[in-house]
Amino acid sequence: MSGNSESRKKAKVDDFYFLKIGPLWKHFWSDHPAFWFLCGYLFFEYFRPQSIYPAINILPWTQILLMGAIVLSVFDKKSKFKISVVHVCIFLLSCQFLFGYFSADYPEWSIEYREFFIQWVVIFIAITYITTTRERFYILLLVFYLCSLKLAYGTALIWVKRGFSFSSFGIMGPPGYFQNSGELAIQMLVFFGLSYYLMKGFFGLSNKWERLILIVGLLAPVMTILGASSRGSQLALVALIIWLVRFRIFKIKYLISLAMISALIVILLPEEQLNRFDSMGEDRTSEQRILYWTRGIEMILDHPFTGVGYYNYIPYFTEHYPDDILFTNLQGERIAELPHNILIQIGTDGGIPALIYYIIIVGYCVFPKTKLDQPFSDIDRGLCLGVLGFFIAGQFVTVGYYPFLWVSAALLVSLRRVGLANQTVSK
User: Fold this and answer.
1) What's residue 279's pLDDT?
2) Is the pLDDT of residue 352 over 60?
3) What is the pLDDT of residue 10?
4) Could you give the C-alpha distances from 153 to 50, 146, 173, 345, 396, in angstroms and in order?
5) Model pTM greater than 0.85?
6) Can you tell me the mean pLDDT for 276-297?
7) pLDDT tens digits along 173-186
8) Among 4, 87, 131, 206, which residue has the least CB neighbours within 10 Å?
9) Residues near 389 by beta carbon (within 8 Å), at least 6 away in sequence
């Protein structure tokens, strides 16, 4: 009986591949409203219709949908809580930030920015609590994929219309987490990793329109990264490409392909952006970041157990290292910025213990689970590759409390849960 049940379950999710709208739409509306609200949250967070159509931007849609998903999940029999190593590390990380608050010199800063981290704790728990079946996971993943695709296509088109020219502000995304060019480029790294492995796993199973979507999904994020003028993300993209061909790099066809890709990147990159790489490490911006990193390491070593306090880096640096601030703000004041490095951000916010918990979470997300069956094994690898891109780029920007890691971690925990559950049933 369990075997027949599992066969029906597999056939249901198999009918979705890659993007079969009819079966997907029918199954979505047959599911519980808690899952509808969760998908709605992800849609409004990534697609940003409230920014595209200001007329509907009269309500806090993301908060309403997230709270709706959490409340309705109480009545959803499929929603179940299962602890993972990431759950434990997020709990310990939260406690560490709380300890740091009591020893912080500027607790008002911790209070003001508390929701920057707390919201991802809530979102992570909501996703992993509600996404407990293969069908739910795959539909939620497609919401994430299609919203990222819209973002990638729209921003890549901006660069094309600009004639592949350089702009100091790069490419702006919609208001929200991806408005800034640097953060937009990191989301494209996350999307590129997923797109590559979806192409690998689903291209042969797709019709011509689905294949076109897969091709656009692979090319568009690369174009956005190249046009975004973010050196860290561009270096991360090169690192991901090398990682993908690392075992085949000495084969002739891969060497030729890598050389052609490299030549195309150099041709497409504006001359101004190439000059920025030439001056990397020597320009004033680089000097300032090195000072931020150096002083940040000092802060961690001076306060190893609690850091200087959650979100206390800016006031602490401004007061203790005023001579190391090379730039003034729009008001002409010398006020420090965040450290432009995710590890230093976490370490100064919560000390070495927080840094350890954070690295464990990243490690969980970077190394693929080898025992998942197809196509979930490819999806797992794609999400892992995206987190690797985020981690590399995150050494140059302060995005520790942005959605890149937390949403990917939630998707990976959910994926590995339903994948392993499926294998357990079949055995």
Assistant:
1) 61
2) yes
3) 42
4) 19, 10, 11, 31, 25
5) yes
6) 83
7) 988 899 999 999 99
8) 4
9) 186, 189, 190, 192, 193, 233, 236, 237, 239, 240
Amino acid, single-letter form, for residue 16: F
Torsion of CA 186, 411, 244, 149, to 10 degrees: -50
Evaluate if residue 278 carries a pLDDT over 90: no
